[in-house]
Specification:
The chain is 23% helix and 22% strand. The chain contains 9 helices and 20 strands. The strands form 5 sheets. Strands 1-2-8-4-5 form a 5-stranded antiparallel β-sheet. Strands 12, 13, 15, 16 and 19 form a 5-stranded antiparallel β-sheet that branches. The model has no long low-confidence stretch (mean pLDDT 95).
């Protein structure tokens, strides 16, 4: 058994390594396993389309986007691969299908940027799959774990556009490879007794959940070291004894180690941001190669907003402050954000600015049911004489003549998220994040 000192060090490293895996398991359990969770979407290998955008009533996921109605499918890849079919989508509508596995590695994208807007069939396979790509399949995506999430985002131009989004969503198909090939299915994978999880249990039984999840995640070469450490305290497939057999002294060190791991993740999120004109930007999401064993970066991404996009798919400038660091507060000030003429966020798809409550990071209830301002709304907005565009960020209406440009704010602290979908890669560009030639403009106090 390792010493108390070593146990604490392993717990700290293990918490940082395991946090995204356990967070992802908790979402999977709510969405695909527990039919009574209140957040259940659909069983494994079935799609659930959300034929609406998120509002202040949605509280399961913080900083949910309200631009692109979601669809979700959780895949169980143990028995056989799964085929994802997408319909043709009109040229000017952005959509993306993100494949993110139990390691929170993004294994690839289907959609406007990655594969174009034509119809197609794609195959997702598990880490151990060996086989040939069947005819008709455009591309094979390999997940690093046996369970993986498919997250669909379909652009909505305005509320009246929803029936068109629903039509596209009905064309998203998810089926086992055997059904696609019209062949008899292979034997089913063994039934799993998934351990119940909630926010409290995730804290108290953290390492038991990690132990459970790792059986579906074959180790990558960059994981050898951390897996060997975890095995020393009874976690993972090659463990040397049972975690529950640890002495009370060892368990106390594990709690301390987890706390220190948590503090390191928080610090990384604060220090890891590139701040431009008061807007913070992070680059924390990607595939196995992107992280390359940097478990702190991976944990910070999950903590900051699990299931975020790679920057080439979407960049997210965020702020709670003015450029000088003063906290944005709708109960104290009115604010404005002005894009100079011809200097809107440079994107191939579209951009938006969404308002959240600074404390909860949830959308806020407001008199005009407007949670964001985005580029499809530009024709209905008023430009200034010099061609620039000013957004009015305040809790009360700026008056009938300016209401088209009003982004309602809470009566308290403000959290703003800019989203740039499919950012341009040639100047002016927000990429590389924080060093690009395009910079988000500063927020200014009006009064």
């Amino acid at each position: 058994m390792p010493s108390l000192e070593e146990t604490k060090a392993i717990a700290e490293a293990g918490f940082i390594y395991g946090l995204p895996i356990v967070m992802n398991y908790a979402v999977m359990y709510e969405y695909a396993v527990d039919k009574n969770s209140g957040q259940f979407k659909a069983p494994f290998n079935q799609i659930k389309n959300e034929a609406r955008v998120f509002t202040y009533k949605d509280t399961a996921v913080i900083t949910a986007n309200s631009d692109t109605p979601y669809s979700f499918a959780w895949l169980d890849l143990r028995a056989e691969p799964i085929v994802l079919s997408v319909p043709g989508v009109e040229k000017d509508r952005y959509y993306s299908v993100m494949l993110e596995d139990g390691n929170t590695f993004i294994d690839g994208y289907i959609g406007s940027r990655a594969t174009g807007n034509e119809a197609g069939d794609y195959m997702v396979v598990g880490p151990d799959w060996k086989g040939e790509k069947p005819p008709g399949i455009k591309k094979v995506f390999r997940a690093t774990t046996q369970f993986t999430l498919v997250g669909y985002r379909t652009q909505l131009f305005n509320p009246e556009d929803m029936p068109n989004v629903v039509k596209i969503q009905s064309g998203y198909q998810v089926q086992p490879l055997s059904a696609y090939l019209k062949q008899p299915p292979p034997p089913s994978a063994p039934k799993i007794d998934f351990p119940k999880i909630d926010k409290e249990l995730a804290k108290t039984n953290f390492f038991e959940y990690l132990d459970f999840a790792l059986q579906f995640a074959p180790s990558g070469p960059e994981e050898k070291e951390i897996r060997a450490k975890l095995a020393k305290i009874g976690i993972g497939p090659h463990k040397t004894f049972d975690f529950k057999e640890l002495s009370p002294e060892h368990k106390a060190q594990i709690v301390l180690g987890m706390k220190e791991g948590e503090a390191k993740i928080k610090q990384y999120l604060e220090d890891g941001q590139e701040v431009v004109n008061g807007w913070g930007m992070l680059n924390l999401f990607g595939n196995r190669g992107f992280f390359n064993g940097d478990w702190l970066k991976r944990a910070a991404g999950a903590q900051g907003g699990i299931y975020g996009n790679e920057v080439k798919e979407a960049a997210y400038p965020i702020t709670k402050t003015l450029a000088n660091g003063e906290i944005l507060d709708g109960s104290k000030h009115k604010y404005k954000l002005t894009f100079p003429a011809g200097q809107f966020p440079p994107v191939n798809a579209f951009w938006s600015v969404t308002m959240y409550d600074g404390k909860t990071q949830l959308l806020i209830k407001n008199p005009i049911n407007r949670y964001l301002i985005n580029s499809p709304m530009l024709p209905t907005m008023k430009k200034n004489a010099d061609g620039s565009l000013t957004l009015y960020i305040q809790k009360d209406s700026p008056g009938a003549d300016k209401e088209s440009n009003w982004l309602p704010a809470p009566d308290g602290s403000i959290y703003l998220v800019m989203r740039l979908y499919w950012p341009k890669e040639t100047p002016p560009s927000i990429l590389p994040v924080g060093q690009g030639t395009w910079k988000p403009p500063s927020i200014e106090i009006v009064n």
